[in-house]
Every structure is written in C-alpha cells, then in structure tokens.
C-alpha cells in the first residue's frame, strides 16, 4: 500500500475481468463520496442486510434504481423502512457506460441499478455471485476509501482457483463475459488506508448493474 515508483498496470484477472487502477481521479472520488453520503440518508438509506439464515451482512448497504435484498430485487425497501428505492441518476449510468468501455467490454444495456456497500474496518463480504440480474452486461465496481482485498474466483465453486486483488480508492473493476457469474468477495479491509484528503473513514464500493428486467 506504499506509493509505487511505477503506476499499477491494468490487469485482466480472469477472462472478462479487468482491474483498472486509479480510474477515478481525486475530484471524481470526492464527488462520488458526496453522492454516497446523500444516498445513505433515510428514507431508503443505508441499512443492515439480514440473510435468510438469520445472519447479518457486515457491510451496510443502500441501493439505487432497484432495491436488492437476499435474493432478488424490489421497488421498495421490503426488508427495511418500506420506502420507495431511490432513483438511479442519469450521470451514474453514463459513468457505468464509460467504465465498461474503458475495460474494453461491450455494454449490452443501460446501467439502471447501483448497490452501494459501506465497510468499516471489521466488515467483509463472503464469496457470492451477482446472479439476480437478467442481463449479461458486465458489472462495474468502483472503490472509495480504505484499501481492501477483493477475492475474484471462478464460476464453479466458492473456493480456489481465485486471485486476490488489492482494490484502492479510485480503482475500477469490471467483470463480464466468461467472468460475469464468477464468485467474488471481500476478505479484508485495511483500516486507515484511505487517502487522507478524501475524508472517508472506511470503504465504499459502488457496483453498477444492468437489470435486464
Ligand atoms: O465491495 C466490493 O468490492 C464487492 C461488492 C460486491 O461484490 C457486491 O456488491 O455484490
Ligand atoms: Fe458481488
């Protein structure tokens, strides 16, 4: 996590899965953080997600466009305050298109869903697939704040083979094509590694998806 002598290269982690370091400059990171803070406010704000087994996810979440809950989408916060989900802004769709284009993936539709996850130092996300969308368009992931270890695996199992990728503030990760349904998760967050000038304690991740509904 030290500053490198050379910029980190963009890397294809698996077929169809591209890590693009430092895609968002400092000004865009600040803008996106400001938007996340607005989205996190009630109604339909940041919430703790309960899983059907009786557990809770450690990353807290807010959704735009459609409300995700385990395991489907709704138009209202069916597992929270019941409010209508916040709208998905036009500019965020444009950002999604640009991001998918940067990673050289064709976008098969218009981005219309965002899941924003907030991780404090102890939060994680278990290995899972993003499989509740009908569209095969790539998922676009943007990271802000603390660095994390993002584990990107395969489509068959939650276990090896996988690659651990360090995602830092401003990094883009896009997974589509043969990797669209690959298992992935966040195995740890390095507390206190956010760029000080950003003013965020913890980590935010925004995934943009095409519903296909
Ligand atoms: O926080 C991350 O980098 C991944 C988030 C994720 O996998 C999801 O929201 O489905
Ligand atoms: Fe995911």
UniProtKB/TrEMBL annotation:
<feature type="binding site">
    <location>
        <position position="128"/>
    </location>
    <ligand>
        <name>Fe cation</name>
    </ligand>
</feature>
<dbReference type="Pfam" id="PF13532">
    <property type="entry name" value="2OG-FeII_Oxy_2"/>
</dbReference>
<dbReference type="GO" id="GO:0005737">
    <property type="term" value="C:cytoplasm"/>
</dbReference>
<dbReference type="GO" id="GO:0035516">
    <property type="term" value="F:broad specificity oxidative DNA demethylase activity"/>
</dbReference>
<dbReference type="InterPro" id="IPR027450">
    <property type="entry name" value="AlkB-like"/>
</dbReference>
<feature type="binding site">
    <location>
        <position position="130"/>
    </location>
    <ligand>
        <name>Fe cation</name>
    </ligand>
</feature>
<protein>
    <submittedName>
        <fullName>Alkylated DNA repair protein</fullName>
    </submittedName>
</protein>
<keyword id="KW-0479">Metal-binding</keyword>
<keyword id="KW-0408">Iron</keyword>
<dbReference type="GO" id="GO:0035515">
    <property type="term" value="F:oxidative RNA demethylase activity"/>
</dbReference>
<dbReference type="InterPro" id="IPR005123">
    <property type="entry name" value="Oxoglu/Fe-dep_dioxygenase_dom"/>
</dbReference>
<keyword id="KW-0560">Oxidoreductase</keyword>
<feature type="domain" description="Fe2OG dioxygenase">
    <location>
        <begin position="110"/>
        <end position="212"/>
    </location>
</feature>
<dbReference type="GO" id="GO:0035513">
    <property type="term" value="P:oxidative RNA demethylation"/>
</dbReference>
<keyword id="KW-0223">Dioxygenase</keyword>
<dbReference type="InterPro" id="IPR037151">
    <property type="entry name" value="AlkB-like_sf"/>
</dbReference>
<dbReference type="GO" id="GO:0008198">
    <property type="term" value="F:ferrous iron binding"/>
</dbReference>
<feature type="binding site">
    <location>
        <position position="184"/>
    </location>
    <ligand>
        <name>Fe cation</name>
    </ligand>
</feature>
<dbReference type="InterPro" id="IPR004574">
    <property type="entry name" value="Alkb"/>
</dbReference>
